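Please review the protein record below. Let me know how this chain folds according to its tokens.
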Amino acid sequence: MTEPETIERIIETLPDPIAARRFYAELIEKVPGASRAKEALISDLVTFAAYSPLLATTILQNPEYVAWLGRERADTKVRSKDELLESLSRFSLLHTDVSPNVMLARFRRRELLRIYLRDIRNLATVPEITEELSNLADAVVEFALRVARQDLENRHGVPLETDDKGRESAARFCVVALGKLGSRELNYASDIDLLFIFSHEGSTSDVGTGSRLTNREFFIKLAERVIALAGGQSGEGAAYRIDMRLRPHGSIGRLALSLDETIRYYRTDAREWERQVLIRSRPIAGDLAIFNSFYSAIEGSVFRPDVDVSESLANVRLSKRRIEDPAAPGPGYNVKLGRGGIREIEFIAQALQLAHGGRDQWLRHPHTLVSLSRIADRGLIDEHRLTGLFEAYDFLRRLEHRLQMEHGLQTHTIPKNEGARSLVARRMNCATAGDLDREVGRHAADVRAVFVDVFEHVDETAADGGEPPSPAVLDGTRTRRQRLYDEVADVSPHFAQMLAAVPYATNKGAASPDQLFAEVVVNEGDFGTRLSLVRRAWSRAILDIAIAEVEGELSIADSKKRQTELAEMSIRTSLALMRDEMEHRIGVRDLPLSILALGKLGGRGVDYASDLDLVLVYEDAAVENTAEVYNRAVEIFVTTLSGTTRDGNLYRVDLRLRPYGKNGASSNPRSVFLKYFENTADVWELLAFVKLRGITGPIASEVDTAVREIIHRRAFATNPALLRSETVRIRSQLERQRGGGRGKVDLKYGAGGLLDIYFATRYLQLRDNMPDATEDRSTRSVLDRLLERGSLSPDDHEALSAGHAFLSELDHNIRLVTGRSRQLPREPKSLQIVTDRSGFSDTADLIENLSLQRLNIRNVFERVLAVD
């Protein structure tokens, strides 16, 4: 039995000791005998939790894997396809109670335990890891093919072909891998790109239980069945995501073609980028001889001895330009598509292969590193550059693996959040996030230098294959997700990046606020699991709103309405999670905490990237040890709503407007809360609480009504000169502190910004005792009511209404495009998108109108507040 202090010593050395410690506690609870396991096995198990919550969950869900891993962990060699097929056959016999696609998904997940353990223990090189991942995919596809073919032959008979002498024999079928699987460089979360080829036309024998089929019909059905078995989704996911867009004629082409048809297509119809894809191709299942016949027939069309070097380089450079991500190394950097990333290493190799491989067959190798070595041997790049490319490939691929194996998602992007990036850094043996950024930058610079050298003098107009596809459009016929990505990217680079990083956000209506609440409530996982669940569901919901807006299905007002509903449901969800956690931790049930909102949420105008300004109250003497219990409850609630995890956060929560500010309690009893506003609150607090609105909880509505009655009564009794001077003082202070400084235009805090409108209207509401309407608390509604009461002149009403509409729309468009607010984008493309969405012909026109509106707003503010 491993001593607890030994386990703790092991855990403390890991990149995520908190996750490892939590996992170990669950392990010894769920897996009998786990605490008696050998120290080395315990060390491996807790290490999974520190590197991959996905695999840690797999172990907890399958306790029998602990013993299996104990037997398998010592075997560090790369297993071949045949060895994995043998293991898969045994595994299938023990899992006859589930469908074949579920069984295959489970087998792959189990094998990832063994492979990733060698990876994080540095017991295998990157090429060894990717080779075994490729062998695993080969085995799964081969098994799926055998099962599918046997079933179809039982139903329809054996597909037959006839040779030149009239002799019949069984028609043959081959599955060809392209891309990373084709070069044996598969990632943990890669799609697999496949091509299906059958030998000849004909028809099936008449010995099956079903109808006879032509060979074409049979093999198309066979391809469909293979895709369904190896790529079919279930409650446990799929073994692989199978991508068929690279087949001849893309998504509109038949799933399977005869050998002659396939050869003819690549010789005569295929575009240059399609032939480039075949550099990384190989047979992985079925009759491998079919591929040999195919490739020998088209190899001369891929590597052309008469091709001009500049033309080959131009074709590859054009392909790369359409799929690259221009982001510099650092937070948010895409290690695959970014400048100096993995794709540039691959394209360096492929470009030089195409340029020189037509006259030098030795250069024709699918694996990136092998081909680079041969390119260097031929003197096409020097040894120093080769070393830099090798080191960059090793580092960036390991980083890619760490990113993907956290949750098994197909991501290539370094997190922007500091905490998440620091965790990735530790998993990469970097002390800090800054160290990770510097390492990525160093390797990306090495790659970029070679890339520029290779393509520096390329004239892309020399390309004769036409413009290559975008990253999401390999054949002109796009899936729903690809169309969405392109549509969103044209409007919102921010949400396009989010869409690319969130594989589960592919369908409109993927998660309503009600679903968000329901998914968390019914889940019985631990606190961390439920946090991840709510963040993923929230991401689907916010993307659904953004996508609907991009597609013109939501107005700005409707978008803010739905975002407000999402924020309110997120609060209710977080309260539910908090109550469960408080019961779990200290046995307190149904804690009656009430939530009230200020700012945008108070006015029902939540927008992208909005903070939530909240205050929290509870009934007097609700539970024993009230203050201590509610402090813990608030901490859990705020963590649930705003704490950053590996899946991001929902909102930034601001509690600073509570009584006594940062020195006050995080939540207050009703009596203390009301007494504070009756006797203590300053004028600026009265201004802030004009927008108070109860969100949820047993006394939220009552406190809302009572506080607003108090602040309006107190303000109406305040000397108007004091109310006016305090309004001007606080507004001026915010402008000085956060207005953007010289040369910057801050839409909210700057002169003539949104705060001028908010302070002017709230001042008038308090001066003239006009509380917000119960239903419509929007600024537009307030302005209209102030006009009706005579608090605003028609001219001032017109200026503020027009200015508010202009700034609100502009602010919203900036948030949609960039994910930020308050200032015009500096990046020209984003600025142009904002300009177009705001209805202006050019940026100069937009800026001129912005200046005019700000001037009008400031004039009204100074007139209303009698500013000298």
